[in-house]
């Protein structure tokens, strides 16, 4: 009974904050309101599967976002080149843009569907998922399946890393220390810290090394280099997209030494 009362109280509080923020900070009616919440709620869904609604009260645990500035800056945060391919196929590039209104607020990632007869080497240096000022950095990390990620703690206090989808808990460790984990299966892995419930990041494990993170607040453009020629499917993921939007594949044909363009409008 106490739990239920607490839930109702918290929900009412959240609703109040949401209404207040919507009135005071939303820059225009068709933009998502930044309700500025940075708290974990009772209906927290670590799988992310239920976080599909664009109504503000359905999204409960995202990172605080910069309140100042709505200017759009073209910026690709992360553009990944493949490790050495095992054969010498001719390549081209993909130049694209993601158009979706939540791009003003959260990062997106694009990645390629599996490529027939292509094998890729995992990077020699493990990519890093850092914990800095109680934030995972980066918030989205795309990797090739089989890659080992280093989890590092930069803060002068203890952090933890666990993932509901990965069913791993790497334990707790202090400043300057790190642990590693090998991702043997494709999928979206939420990264959480048991000690700081507001901390969240995502590791996107796909079957190719071709992926790009599109920073929140950017113009949505991205580029994928050294892609083998042929027809490819491009997919997009963000914590704000629905299962249906995540499930869509956008076909693009890459020709040798040419840039194929694709527009992704989830
Ligand atoms: Cu932590």
Describe this structure in words.
The chain is mainly beta. The protein has two helices and 17 strands. The longest helix is centred in the N-terminal third of the chain and has 24 residues, at 2-25. It starts with a helix and ends with a strand. Mean pLDDT is 75; it is low at 1-86. The protein binds copper (II) ion.
Secondary-structure blueprint:
Layout: H1 2-25, E1 76-79, E2 91-98, E3 108-112, E4 128-132, E5 135-137, E6 140-144, E7 148-153, E8 159-163, E9 168-173, E10 178-182, E11 187-192, E12 200-206, E13 211-214, E14 221-228, E15 230-237, H2 243-247, E16 250-254, E17 259-264
Parallel strand pairs: 2-17, 4-7, 6-12
Antiparallel strand pairs: 1-13, 2-14, 3-13, 3-15, 4-5, 7-10, 8-9, 11-12, 15-16
The protein binds copper (II) ion.
Comma- or semicolon-separated keywords:
266 residues; mainly beta; Immunoglobulin-like; 2 domains; 11% helix; disordered N terminus; binds copper (II) ion
């Amino acid at each position: 009974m106490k739990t239920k009362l607490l839930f109702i109280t918290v929900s009412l509080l959240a609703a109040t904050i949401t209404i207040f923020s919507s009135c005071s900070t939303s820059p225009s009616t068709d933009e998502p309101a930044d309700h500025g919440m940075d708290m974990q709620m009772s209906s927290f869904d670590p799988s992310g599967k239920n976080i599909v609604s664009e109504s503000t009260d359905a999204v409960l645990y995202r990172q605080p976002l910069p309140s100042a500035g709505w200017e759009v800056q073209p910026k690709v945060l992360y553009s990944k080149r493949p490790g050495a391919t095992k054969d010498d196929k001719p390549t081209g590039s993909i130049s694209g843009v993601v158009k979706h209104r939540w791009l003003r607020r959260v990062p997106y990632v694009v990645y390629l569907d599996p490529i027939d007869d292509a094998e890729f080497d995992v990077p020699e240096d493990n990519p890093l998922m850092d914990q800095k000022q109680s934030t995972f950095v980066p918030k989205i990390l795309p990797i090739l399946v089989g890659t080992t990620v280093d989890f590092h703690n930069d803060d002068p206090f203890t952090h933890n890393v666990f993932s509901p989808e990965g069913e791993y808990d790497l334990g707790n460790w202090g400043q300057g220390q790190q642990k590693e984990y090998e991702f043997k299966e494709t999928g979206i892995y939420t990264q959480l810290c048991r000690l700081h419930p507001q901390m969240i990041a995502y590791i996107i494990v796909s079957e190719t090394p071709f992926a790009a993170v599109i920073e929140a607040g950017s113009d949505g453009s991205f580029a994928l280099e050294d892609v083998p020629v042929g027809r490819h499917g491009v997919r997009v993921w963000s914590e704000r997209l629905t299962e249906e939007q995540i499930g869509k594949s956008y076909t693009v044909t890459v020709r040798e030494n040419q840039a194929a363009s694709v527009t992704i409008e989830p």
